[in-house]
Amino acid sequence: MFAVTGLGHVRLPAVVRHRCDLAGGDRVLLAADRAQGRLVVHPPVMLDAMVDQLYAAVLGGEAA
Predict the structure, then answer these.
(1) I need a labelling partner for 22 at 20 to 30 A (CA). Which of 14, 37, 40, 49 fits?
(2) Which residues of 3-39 are buried (b: 16+ CB within 10 A; e: fewer)?
(3) Residues of the chain falling short of pLDDT 70
(4) pTM, to two decimals
(5) Kind and range of the H or E element at 40?
């Protein structure tokens, strides 16, 4: 179970940080998957890729 600190931070276990290639202090997008009962961690590199694919799909063309 994760808890939010008084500063609004979530401390992720080392195994999660390593799997996502994160360093301490890195910013991430956290998304709750209620149906599966899990918290999904989106590191910045994944957000860049998702936004790139979305714009390519909406505007036409290929993702960069």
Answers:
(1) 37
(2) eeeeeeeeebeeeebeebebeeeeebeeeeeeeeeee
(3) 1, 63-64
(4) 0.61
(5) strand 38-42
